[in-house]
Design brief:
- There is one protein chain.
- The protein is mainly alpha-helical.
- The protein has one domain.
- Helices cover 71% and strands 0% of the residues.
Length: 72
């Protein structure tokens, strides 16, 4: 169950620590690589756009996991 404290934690800016910076870079790089494979392997269409959007969402969610350190 989500609490008010959880919301405070989720919706607060979390400045990256030096240890987190390479994690963010790895996630972004892998996401970009996958998006490029999708772009180069599929024809332009709604499914291609959706696939790339999902990669973007996955990168953003993974970055949140790093920033929030699993809480909540």
């Amino acid at each position: 169950m989500v609490t008010i404290n959880d919301l405070d934690h989720i919706f607060t800016y979390h400045a990256p620590t030096p240890e987190q910076l390479p994690l963010y870079e790895n996630i972004r790089s892998a996401g970009r690589n996958l998006a490029e494979v999708i772009l180069n392997s599929t024809i332009p269409c709604a499914d291609q756009q959706a696939a790339i959007r999902h990669v973007r969402e996955a990168v953003m969610t993974a970055n949140a996991a790093v920033a929030l350190r699993g809480n909540p």
